[in-house]
Records
---
Amino acid sequence: MCFPTYRQVGWLLARGYPLVKLINQIFNNNDDPLKGKQLPVLYSARDFGFYSLSGNVGTRFGHAVGWAMAKAYRNSDDIAIGFIGDGTTAEGSFHEALTFASVYKAPVILGITNNQWAISTFTGLATNQDTTFASKALSYGIPGLRVDGNDALAVYSVLEWAADRARHGHGATLIEFFTYRSGAHSTSDDPERYRPKDEASLWPLGDPIERLKQHLLANSEWSEERDDEIQKVLDKQVTESLKEAERIGVLGESKPDVREMFEGVFKEQDWRVKEQLKELGL
Amino acid sequence: MIMNMVQALNSALDVMLGKNSEVLVFGEDVGYFGGVFRVTDKLQKKHGRHRCFDTPISEGGIIATGIGMAAEGLRPVLEIQFADYILPAYDQLVSEAARLRYRSNGDFQAPITVRAPYGGGIFGGQTHSQSPEAIFAHVTGLKTVIPSSPYDAKGLLIASIECDDPIIFLEPKRLYNGPFEGYHDRPLKPWSGETESHVPEDYYSIPLGKAKVKKAGSEATVLAYGTMVHVALAGILESGVDAELIDLRSIVPLDVITIEESVKKTGRCLIVHEASKFSGFGAELSALITERCFYYLSAPTIRLAGWDVPYPHAFEWDYFPSPDRVAKSLKQLLED
Ligand SMILES: Cc1ncc(C[n+]2csc(CCOP(=O)(O)OP(=O)(O)O)c2C)c(N)n1
Ligand SMILES: [Mg+2]
């Protein structure tokens, strides 16, 4: 099971989650799989191995450890992977998860997306600049790896190594993925207020997709024609999915039945919900 | 000077940083950036990086560090980016800040002020919209202050900083840029048209625990705080009922005398809050009214609140108490 942050929507796509469904969640429309209960982009998709996201940062890092321990308890080979942002490593939940993962040798991979920014603050505020996030693993007695997060093949190989280690009962690994947040933190953020305008253009480690492409081209495993081709196919898929979701309705135009608001608080509704539904005229 | 609530809060912090070198302001993104809601804008530039600074993302760390500083004698003003994110610090607030003076028999105290934007109406979904006042009101040793206008926000924040007790200062973020009456489909109103946007630039304070009669009336009493003061007023006007509206301004300390006088006069009471109803602060208000005004009551007290569900993103306007629901409740209160 994957325990993502809001930065890992790519996992959902890689696992074949339908694009239309994803956009329906963003629109909170009638077909929203989460029935309007959660903020756009805070997906949940158990069938795709994607744990429920929440607005609170860090709070699911320990769940990855618990899930992994549950799998070990069942003598299953399954493992768990949990991610956290560099800024969020300051939360207690980061340290609690590492303590439990190391004490119980949980079959878990714990990843840090070090994109060097946490809204307006740089990594020097999340940890002392004389250390790295990866090296925090040492004090917990587990391996800590630091990898160029924009090198797809390097990312693949460290994950493979850590997964193998977990599956063979050697316990947890902490991996720092060194990368850069080139865009704004969110749609309501303006990075020009706290970092130089041209900072993103000076980032030396490039775009991971472009880098992988160059690597494959150099090895004659890929061609510009095939690249153009796939780009067109994907563009079309995205546009068509967007149109389909728009037909159901964009944010505010269409929403699930208001009764959904009361579903799922408890497994069975108590008298309060019944009375309040009535008060709403439902 | 005309100020919106963000500017009024900024002015309170600016005045206190200037007046008292023991005041420090810190929290996530509050220093260089000036806060995600701009409440601490330019304070670092003006007062220096030792007075106003950024912290790691660790609410428990922010509050624990603040308590240590306050125990030493400083006056930290701590920002929690959203009230929804205060929970990692709940242990520090409940077991430490609220208990330090009592358990040390006055040896130490924790005069921290914890500012946190709270409340809904901003399309923020579950974790940017909640109203957690009741979980603080229940903790003996914590005070909870909730302003409803720029003028009150500045005066109450200054009083909070000067108070020797730990304070949770909840800022109704939907009111930051203008009064909001709950008509979400109408154009935004700025603060500039309102008398309460006239805010003195200098120091002034408003005593904690003094409610404000926002509108006098004789047929019913309406109790509200924060955003709901404005929604309640709109609902009263919609209903045509001659209701008295009391803005509590702080729920601990609670101005029980003003409440009691009003309810004894009107004989009917409606309580309005955004937080869900069950065990919400309305339950305490309702119990106090029953205990103190029972023989004066002509009708059972009504609580109008959020439904007993987590804050539901797509159903924000079904959840959020509206002026229509206030008007309906008032009419019911008069019929009972
Ligand atoms: C408990 C909690 N505190 C504060 C916030 C507000 N907040 C949302 S994202 C964020 C920055 C997170 O930075 P980082 O961990 O580096 O993740 P990134 O966004 O860079 O991937 C903050 C402070 C929150 N969502 N939850
Ligand atoms: Mg980051």
Note: The beta strands of chain A are 2-3, 80-85, 108-114, 117-118, 121-122, 144-148, 173-178.
---
Amino acid sequence: MTKKHADAIVVGAGWAGSILAKELTEAGLSVIMLERGSERTTAVEGAYPDSIDELRGAIRKRLFQNLSQTTVTVRNTIEQTALPYRQLAAFLPGEGVGGAGLHWSGVHFRVSPEDLRLRSSVVERYGEKFIPEGMNLQDYGVTYAELEPFFDKAEKVFGTSGEAYRVNGKIVGNGNIFDGDRSDNFPLPVMKDTFTASTFRAAATEAGYHPYSLPAANASSQYTNPYGCQMGPCNFCGYCSGYDCYLYSKASPNVNILPALRQDPGFTLISDAHVLRVDLDDTRSKATGVTYLETKTQKEVSLSADLVILSAFQFHNVHLMLLSGIGKPYDPISNTGTTGRNFVYQTITSSRVWLPPSKYTNQFIGAGGVGVAIDDFNSMNFDHGPLGFVGGSPVWVNQAGVKPIAAAIGTGGGGTPRWGSAYKGALIDTYKHSIGIDAHGSNMAYRDVYLDLDPTWKDAYGQPLLRMTFTWKDNDIRMNQYVVSKIEPIAKAMGATKANLVHLNAGQPFDTRHYQTTHLGGGAVMGTDPKTSALNRYLQSWDVSNVFVIGSNAFPQGMGYNPTGMVAALAYWAAYHIRTTYLKSPGPLVQA
Amino acid sequence: MPPKEPTLTRPLRRSFVKGLLGSTSFWMVSGHSHWAEALAQEAQKPYQPTFFTPDEYRFVEAAAERLFPQDQHGPGAQTLGVAEFIDRQMESPYGHGDNWYMSAPFVQGPANLGYQLPFVPRDLYRKGIAGLETYTRQQHGKVFADLPSAAQEQILTALEGGSVSLGDVPGRVFFEQLRTNTLEGAFADPLYGGNKRLGGWLMLGFPGARADFMDWVNQDGEAYPFGPISLSGETA
Ligand SMILES: Cc1cc2nc3c(=O)[nH]c(=O)nc-3n(C[C@H](O)[C@H](O)[C@H](O)COP(=O)(O)OP(=O)(O)OC[C@H]3O[C@@H](n4cnc5c(N)ncnc54)[C@H](O)[C@@H]3O)c2cc1C
Ligand code: SF4
């Protein structure tokens, strides 16, 4: 039997996959996109009022990955037995058409230019010795100037609202003074400040910092993107992070790319198709296609293709590489191999300040990407010399819409009651009068923090689960503590009656039970040296040159910013080089 | 899209129409299956538990009320229908642990690596309640619901602190399950059986399904002026 063939197969229908599928069909290729989850459209899954039901949405997690089919195991150290992540909590991977892009929040950053060359930058300023033993600090192998056109393109596709600081070398507005130069302004004007955001803005200014509006992929007015896809203005409904936007205001692959892509005759989307592996030829240096399971019929299907794009999300990409034998698995003992190396996350801690009872913070009003931040303690924007750590953290008020069940579950603890009458009083006061302030920071890569296959547990398809070995390390804990201490003057300037500044504690292990972020990174990183990166600077596998692996897996370390703007720019960057160079003469774009 | 007739109609209050700030499209969404469910639930009072036995149900009612008591701040779990909410949740996919990874082996480890028991929520309640009632009878000679509030609080404090073992289920795990579901019942949309008369939302000043705040993004710390509305259109 001859297998069905496509010029390119794209695994995963999130942002990364949708961008690649769009670019490759534009280049005239036949493209099949395979998505393990079900079909999803805003008109159905996002329909009001079902979409704004907290229990069904963020609490029962209807849009997220169904762990009963597949999950990961987690341990903190190499000596431990990793145990399955049985209930969604610390991170919430997506599933279904649109991936996590359907229910993300929409904070749409670029990158701090220095973060792309963090190793070089640290060494230039503080010398090689400044890097702690066991930290795998690396450059991306691509510069901000090279990526700029692709950041710009992604913002135009996403319909991003924001205020620029500098465009073509000219200061144009009140944006982030630490931003890299831009070739154009944001496609949409900045979103309004919520009351909490404007309070933070005023206080941060008074404290001597440089506040700016978060770039938000929540539309500040109606918009038609370069693909002809339309968005309507966001009304701050507050059912944003973890929800499908009922107003077509939050950028998603479903709203901003797929309506155009679905009309292309060269494009086929197959949902309920769980890819089991990328098939390789005997040399193990060329992919011949993929094999997937039709989850509805439990039938295995093989497809052949000239080009395979893995865009199944950071750790699923690494999982598929390990299951398929793409690249050499990383071994922390011998410090060899690259698949699974440099697994990173982000340090996030949420502090809280209370305003006087006359001020209502109306926390249920908000939008996922909206808020005010400072970058004074992010990236290389401050002197690390006397501090002795690498990395940094933006600090922000990002009121995405706080809903009552989440608020109730999260109130109490740390010496305050978690139930009973005193708890109730505190909950009401906190809900009505407080402001959340996050330190959302970087997380470095370490020799003994990595991904590999679990020796014990299997998924519903009989394949070994991915194993995460991860914990917080001293460098990142001290970074977090330092940045959190900088919130104090802001809290004072806000006129806070009380503040609860929360930071990581020395020796505190990573806890899978509490939401952190879904900003996992690394594991198959990009770079210039095949010994320390699984992908070259075009996100092409060093080992199997007709496989490109697109996602935050490419980040050599976790940055302070939310990842999706960077993922989208890298997707357009890789696609550009596939279109302009690879397709003309398939093979490695960089010689190893 | 031409507006369709709503399949179910309820009296509209003035405040509701005002509160929608002009977007009456809400009422044009027809066939919202939850409405029928919500109304049917209202009709069949008092609630008859389907998952819990009458004794278990008495326990859930009493324990939820201690965790979330009626007080000067507002209604407690009993008034809000929390026990009914939990009973109904046990019959939902969630009660059966539909999106939990439940493959063996089940190996216990450090708490920070998360839940590792072979039990779904239904099992946790069945075993947890049995274990706690055994403990309560031994310590106090009565079932939990028949104890004075102070004794109930003492038991829940011990459970939360981890000093009570319930056989297969660690006391702390059962406590967290009960606390989480109690709070869900106090604040979920009333269509799930709790948050009766929107009492939970009223306490917090949460406007429920309004989901349109164009004119209240920043009013310099003024309280949002409108009361809550539920998915089925109930106002308070
Ligand atoms: C609640 C929440 C809020 C967030 N907010 C922000 C934010 O404000 N800003 C920001 O920058 N980022 C945010 N993120 C992160 C953001 O969602 C991700 O960075 C982004 O969606 C990643 O895109 P992706 O295409 O790489 O992966 P995904 O969107 O996860 O898409 C991957 C797809 O691949 C599919 N897949 C996986 N394995 C297989 C397989 N074996 N076979 C077939 N298909 C497979 C998955 O089902 C999924 O649909 C948030 C995430 C969450 C969960
Ligand atoms: S807050 Fe805005 S972008 Fe987010 S879901 Fe609501 S309307 Fe959509």
Note: Chain B touches chain A through 66 residues (CB under 8 Å).
